[in-house]
Amino acid sequence: MGKEKHNKNPSGKALNLLRTRLTNPNFIFKTFSDSPDSNYSKLKFIISSSVTEACNNSILLLGPRGSGKVAVLELVLSDLLQQYPEVISVIRLNGLLHSDDNCAIKEIARQLCMEHQLLFSKVASFDDNSQFVVAMLRECGLAHKTIIFVLDEFDLFAQGKQRLLYSLLDAMQSVTSQAVVIGVSCRLDVDQLLEKRVRSRFSHRKLLFLPASREDTERFLEHILSLPMDSTLPQKYTVEFNERLKNILADERFKEVINTCSSFNSTIGYLVKFLFQAVSYMDLDVGFLSLENFKTAASSIQRQPKLECIRDCSVLELYLLVCMKRLEVKEQTSYNFNSIMTEYKSIHASFQTSDYYARNVCLRAFEHLILRELISFTDNKANNQSVEYRSIKLLISPVELDQALKSYRSCPAILLKLMDR
């Protein structure tokens, strides 16, 4: 009886399968690892050639949070540890925990001791630990073992005196050592933070994790959401599920939803979060994904507190925000309340708007925007200066402002017109 019910309504199992995929980085990035031009292939080649050719290497993995730097690195390391189980040691550090040089070198020594069943001394000095790490690099090199140092939040190691980076890279200059230093960072300019002596020892290899192309995104969506034909799900259900999915993926309205999500955040991490919400909205009684599931997920994931804040603004406050946006478009890098009032008057003069208020009313609206944290002063040190003269900046993007105006019930048509110009 239970089996018959399961065959009649297999949607629960399909939902679990999709959720499992979306929480498995190995499955997620498999679709991006096939190409020889992928970051997975490039990184694997660099590390494996260091292992097989017994040479030293250093590389930076750069890209925004959620772009898959750590996921791809872990995928590569997992493959290489299976391929060369006896000759690779992985030492992991994180700049948030180990940016202090003394703390970092102690952590490296601790992990090396654990890896090679040695006794670790908690009271050893920085120099003692440094000498130990150099000796271990030499011994591992002589035994043809490669040590891979993974430095996450690499930019935090580049602050201060950079003794750790210098010690590691300097030790790697030795003929006998065999090591790879992999820096992972969200800062694209992280190599510019390095001291001259450190930079001269770094290889300057970089892998950039850029947003996926439209073709890659389409391939990714199909890879993640299509049900496998060789599963225990009824074949008839699987065929219909995949057929309906293809229709959704080809629908222009769906492509618009994906484009809107990408305009907010184009990383794989954000796309996966969006897809997880979408599949969770699937109606188990219907048993198939629908376009509405994706639309609901999009409106849920893109919920912006600032947009909701703007919807509670007065029409005058909207005018002031649009004036500021126009000043920024004109590349006016520094402006204050007086500059905004000049822009506000010029809009009234050009369009003879009925929404024109006295200066003191505008000042109250301006202060209200500061309290709502939609705008802020650029310099908090100038507290003794009058509000009207202090430099100000917008805390919302043009995209957010445009969206908020379009969803504002009684937004004057002139403001939408001014935003489009």
From TrEMBL:
<feature type="domain" description="ATPase AAA-type core">
    <location>
        <begin position="59"/>
        <end position="205"/>
    </location>
</feature>
<dbReference type="GO" id="GO:0016887">
    <property type="term" value="F:ATP hydrolysis activity"/>
</dbReference>
<dbReference type="Pfam" id="PF00004">
    <property type="entry name" value="AAA"/>
</dbReference>
<comment type="similarity">
    <text>Belongs to the ORC4 family.</text>
</comment>
<dbReference type="GO" id="GO:0006270">
    <property type="term" value="P:DNA replication initiation"/>
</dbReference>
<dbReference type="Pfam" id="PF14629">
    <property type="entry name" value="ORC4_C"/>
</dbReference>
<keyword id="KW-0547">Nucleotide-binding</keyword>
<dbReference type="GO" id="GO:0003688">
    <property type="term" value="F:DNA replication origin binding"/>
</dbReference>
<keyword id="KW-0238">DNA-binding</keyword>
<feature type="domain" description="Origin recognition complex subunit 4 C-terminal">
    <location>
        <begin position="221"/>
        <end position="405"/>
    </location>
</feature>
<keyword id="KW-0539">Nucleus</keyword>
<dbReference type="InterPro" id="IPR032705">
    <property type="entry name" value="ORC4_C"/>
</dbReference>
<dbReference type="GO" id="GO:0005664">
    <property type="term" value="C:nuclear origin of replication recognition complex"/>
</dbReference>
<comment type="function">
    <text>Component of the origin recognition complex (ORC) that binds origins of replication. DNA-binding is ATP-dependent. The specific DNA sequences that define origins of replication have not been identified yet. ORC is required to assemble the pre-replication complex necessary to initiate DNA replication.</text>
</comment>
<dbReference type="GO" id="GO:0005524">
    <property type="term" value="F:ATP binding"/>
</dbReference>
<dbReference type="InterPro" id="IPR003959">
    <property type="entry name" value="ATPase_AAA_core"/>
</dbReference>
<keyword id="KW-0067">ATP-binding</keyword>
<protein>
    <recommendedName>
        <fullName>Origin of replication complex subunit 4</fullName>
    </recommendedName>
</protein>
<keyword id="KW-0235">DNA replication</keyword>
<dbReference type="InterPro" id="IPR016527">
    <property type="entry name" value="ORC4"/>
</dbReference>
<dbReference type="InterPro" id="IPR027417">
    <property type="entry name" value="P-loop_NTPase"/>
</dbReference>
